[in-house]
C-alpha cells in the first residue's frame, strides 16, 4: 500500500490541463477562467452622485442657510450640459453624472425648493456624496484571474467591465462504469439479492457540479466480455472511472481486463479507510481511476482523488492553502496504520468555533450517514487518541453545489 499523499500526487501529476474555449457570460456560470481578464471600461466611467439632491459648489455654503439658483437637472444616463457657476445648483439624482463646475452634492432632505430657488440648510465638503470616476475600477485593471471558478458575482463583475465573453477551460469528460451482477438501476425489477446502483448516479452528479461532463457507460456484469464491451465507450473521455471490481475477489475483474487492454498501473491499494482498494493507472494516455464498490468508500475516494484530479485538469488552485480545521466534538481512540476519513456533523460552539462531531457508526456501506455528514474528519496514520476539543483537519462536504 502507498500513502494517501503519494497516491494523490501520482493522480494529479498524471492528468493534463485541458484546452481553452470561449463562452458568453450567460453560459459562464461554474466555468473556470483560463486567462486573466482586464476591464474594458472604468467604473463609474465619470463622477456620479451617490444621493438624490442638488449638485453645487461647496464654497457657496460658507454661510448657512444659503439660497441658490436651480439651473437644471441631471439624471442617470443624461447629464446637465452646462457649467455650474457660483450661486447655482443642479437638481441631481443617484447615479447621474456630476455637472461641470460642481464639486459636492447635498441631500434633498437638507434642502427646501421653491420654484427655481433652493435653500440649503447643511454645509457639505468638497467631494461629499460623489463617487469619483474609477472608484470601483479603472480601464485596463485586471480584476479576474485565471483559475477562478465563476460564480454569479464574477459574472456580474465581468459584465460591468464590459467583457461579453470569457476564455475558459473545456469541461472534462469523465466516463464512468459501475460493475456487479447484483447492481440494478433505481426503479428496475429488484430481486432480494440485488442492490440499487446508487454510486453511479451519485458520481455522475458529482462530476457535473465539479464542472465536468459525466458519460455514463452503464453497469457491467461480473464477466470480462461485459466489461470489454462497455469500456469501449470511454474512447473520447478525459478520464475513466470504474466503480467496484477492483478488490481481490474472484469476481473483481476490472483490473484484469484493464491490464489485458494495456493499462499501465500507477497504484493499487492505498493506506486509507474507507477506500483501501482504490486503483489508478493509464490506458492509452487516458487516466483510469478505480473506486471501491461500497457506497461510502466510493464517495470518500471520489472526494479525495477525483475532485483534485478534475481541479488539476481545469487549472483550479495550486495547493499550498492550509487545510480547514475544526474542534473535535467527541473523544476518539488511537488510529491504526491507515489514514481515516470519519463522517461527521459540523456545528458551532458557544464561542462560534466550528465543531466536528463524528458519527458513532462509520461502516462503509452506510449511505444515509454519508448523506447526512457535513464533513470528513481526517486522521493521519497512527494518530494518538484525541479528546473532545482537540483541533482536527476536516474536508467539508457541503459547500454550495459542490457537494458529494
List keywords for this structure.
7 helices; six-stranded mixed β-sheet; 30% strand; 26 strands; 404 residues; alpha/beta
Descriptive account of the structure:
By secondary structure, the chain is of the alpha/beta class. The chain is built from 7 helices and 26 strands. The strands form 7 sheets. The chain has a 6-stranded mixed sheet, with no helix packed on it. It has a 6-stranded mixed sheet with strand order 16-13-17-21-20-18, sandwiched between helices. α1 (4-14) packs across α6 and α3 (198-209) packs parallel to α6. It is elongated.
Topology:
Elements lengths: L3 H11 L5 E5 L12 E2 L9 E2 L3 E4 L9 E9 L13 E5 L11 E4 L3 E4 L2 E4 L9 E2 L10 E3 L7 H9 L4 E5 L3 E7 L3 E2 L10 E2 L1 H12 L3 E8 L3 H8 L7 E5 L10 H7 L3 E5 L3 E2 L5 E5 L2 E6 L3 H20 L10 E4 L10 E10 L5 E5 L8 H6 L2 E5 L11 E6 L8
Would you tell me the structural class of the helices and strands? Answer: alpha/beta
In angstroms, what separates the terminal alpha carbons?
26 Å
**Hey, roughly how much beta strand do the residues contain?**
25-35%
Principal-axes geometry comes out as elongated
Number of strands: 26
Major sheet summary line: 6 strands, mixed
Number of helices, where a helix is a run of at least 4 consecutive DSSP H or I residues: 7
Report the uncertain regions. 400-404
Helical percent range? 10-25%
If you compute it from the alpha carbons, what radius of gyration comes out, rounded to the nearest whole angstrom?
31 Å
What's the overall average pLDDT, rounded?
92
